[in-house]
From TrEMBL, chain A:
The chain crosses the membrane at residues 12-33, 72-98, 110-132, 144-163, 184-209, 244-263. InterPro entries: MetI-like, MetI-like_sf. It holds the Pfam family BPD_transp_1. One of its GO terms (cellular component) is plasma membrane. Its main location: membrane. This is Multiple sugar transport system permease protein. CDD domains: TM_PBP2. One of its GO terms (biological process) is transmembrane transport.
TrEMBL record, chain B:
Belongs to the binding-protein-dependent transport system permease family. GO terms for cellular component: plasma membrane. It comes from the Bacteria. It comes from Alicyclobacillus sacchari. CDD domains: TM_PBP2 (cd06261). The keyword Transmembrane applies. This is Carbohydrate ABC transporter membrane protein 1 (CUT1 family).
Amino acid sequence: MTGKMTKFTGSIAKYMVLTIGVVVVIFPLYIAVVNSLKSNADMNRLSPLQLPLHPDWQNYVTAWTGGALGSAFVNTFIIIVLAVIGNIFFGTMVAYVLGRFNFPLKKVIMGAYLVAMFIPTMTVQVAIFGIIKNIGLFDTRYAMVLLYLGTNVVQIYIYMQFIKRIPISLDESAMLDGASYFRIYRSIIFPLLAPASATVAILQTIAIYNDLYSPYLYMPSTNLGVVSTALLRFQGPYSAQWNLIMAASVIIAIPLLLIYLFLQRYIFAGIVNGAVRE
Amino acid sequence: MNFHVSYKAQRRLLIIGFLIIPLVLLVTFSLYPAIKLILYSFTSWNGLSTSYPWVGLHNYMEIFKNPALFGVFLHNLSYFVGGLVQNVIALGLALLLSKKVKVRNGFRSVLFIPYMLNAVAVVYIFQFMYQDNGALNTILRAVGLGGLAADWIGNNHVINWALAFVSLWEYFPFNMVIYLAAIQSIPEDMYEAALLDGASGWQTLWYVTLPNLRAIIQVNLLLTVSGALEAFNIPFIMTNSAPAAATFLTQTMNVAFVFNNYGLASAMAIVLLVIVVLVISIQRKIVGGGDDVV
C-alpha cells in the first residue's frame, strides 16, 4: 500500500520536475517570439509577458533588411559547406594514414595532434591574427574556412575511433584483388566512415553557426557578416528596440532548429560520439 | 592493365600526399601560433611594430600583481558554480528521462532546444528578459516575489550569476544528452540483479547507476571546468566585456585587440592555457584514471 503510494507520488514528482524543465526552456522562447511581434506602441503599453494586440510582422522585414540577414545567411552557408567538406576529406585522409600505416614520424604527428587538442582556440587568436594578415586573407571568407580546417583537431580523434572498427581484413582482401591504397581509401574507408563524417558534419555545423569571435575578428566588413556577427551589429543601432532585436534573434535561431527537427537522432548521436572517446 | 606501382612506393606517396595539407593547416593555425604566443609573452610587442622589445617575465608578473587581470577569475568562479549546478540538473533530468516516462521523447526534444539556438540570439533574449521592466522582474512581482526583483545586469553583485545562468540554460542539454546515452548503455542485468537483491530505488541509483557513470561524469566535469575558465561569449555579447562582468578571456582579448598590448595578452593566454592543463591533470589524478578524454 505505502509502496504503491510512494510510487505514485514519485511518478507525480517526476512529471512535475520534467514539466518545470520544459517551462524554463520554453519561457525565454515565448518571450522572444511574442515581443518580436509587437509594434513600438505595444512594447510601451504591454507587459513583456502579454501577447501583442495586433501581430506586427513589419519587425521581421525591418530586421531582415536592416540587419543584412540575407547576406549573413549566404556567407554562413558558404563557410559551413566549404569547411565541412574540407574537414571530411582531410579528416578521413589523416585517419586512414594514421590508422592503417606505420611509418617514421607517426608518433610525432600523433603527438602534434594531441598537443593541439589542448590549446584553446580562443587564446591563440592573439597570434593567429598576425598569420591571417600575413597570408593576405584578412577580411575574406577563406580566412574562416582555413581557420576551421586547421583548428578542428577533435574530428581526427572521432575518425580514429571509427576507423579502428573497420576490419583490416577488408583492406587485405581488396589488396589481394589488386586494389591500390588510394582505391582502398576511396571505396572502402571513405564510405565506411560515413557515420563518423555525419558526426563531424553535425558538430562542425553547430560550432560554426554559433561562432562569434573569429568572424568578428577576421571579417570586419559588413558585407561579410555571418549570422552571429550580423546579429551583433544589428543590435548596435537598434539597441533600445527590443522588438526588432527579438525578431532578428528569432530569424537567426530558425535554421538550426529546422535542422534539429529533421535530424534530431543524428544530432544526439553526434554529440555523444564527439564527447566520449575510447 | 598490369601496370602497378609497387605497394611500397604507393604507400610513401599516399602517406605524404594525404598528410601534407592537413599538417600544414595544423601547424599554421594551431602549433605555430602557440609557439608565437610563448615568444610574444616575453615581449611588449604592440601588434603592429616590427620591433619586439624583450621584457623577460615582466608580463607574467604584471598578471599576478594587477587585480584587474588575475582578479577577474573571481567572475569565472560564477560560471564554475553555475556549471556544477548545470551538471546536477542535466544528470537529474537524464535520470528521469531514462525511466519509463510517457512522451519521453517529447520531453527530451524540448529540453534539448536551448543547445540548438544561436549563441548570440540566446544572449539577447536573456538581456531583454533581464531589463528592469523585463519578463523576469515582471514575473517575480506578479507572484509576490517582487523583493527578489533586481537590476540583473546593472548590479555588480548579481551580474555574473545572471550571466552564468544564461550559460547553464544554454548548455545543460549538451550534458543531459551525454548522461542519458551513458545511463542507457548500462547493462540491464545489473538492474535485474539489484532488484533481486531487494535494492530500493535510491540504493540502485547510488550503487549501480552512479558508479557506472563515473567516467562520463568526469568527462562532463572536465568540460565544465574548461568552459568556466574560458567563459567569453556571454559577457562579451551582453556587456561588451564591461569590467563588472569581465572574465579572464574577455580581459585577454581586450588587452590584445583594444589596448594593443599583444605581449601582455599572450602571457595571459599562456597563463590560461597552463591553468586549464593543470586543472585537467589534477582532476584526472583525483577522480582517477579513465581514458575518456575530451
